[in-house]
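Example pasted here:
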Amino acid sequence: MYRKILVALENGPADDTLIPHVTALARELGSALHLLHVADGWAARNYEQLKLAESDEMKADRAYLDSRAAALRDRGLQATTELALGNPPTEIVKVALAAQCDLIALASHGHKLLGDLMHGSTIDKVRHETSIPMLVVRAGRAPH
């Protein structure tokens, strides 16, 4: 059913909740995992236009993705990585389509209305821009 799952990682603690869920799902269904992090700092957002060198943050994000993928491969799973640059919701949708993913997995922080207005909701923006099914895991909740 889900041949390839896009796993949107933040390079933060929420990833530790999301990864066990997608790992279990991928193992059960034989799915490949496509790990994505969207760098959205100033250098990342202006990288192409200004022909900038890769920032230390972007290098650290790439190393993070590679280490997460290596750990998944060590456990017998198929995992690829991609570091995208720019607006996270836009890039998540774009990469999911380009990589032909059947499912988009993201972690939710459970902000209330005021928090969503202040921080924006990546999940809400993604769900309005795609018809690809989504798995949303609340950060801090381990799989049963």
Remarks:
- The chain has one domain: 4-138.
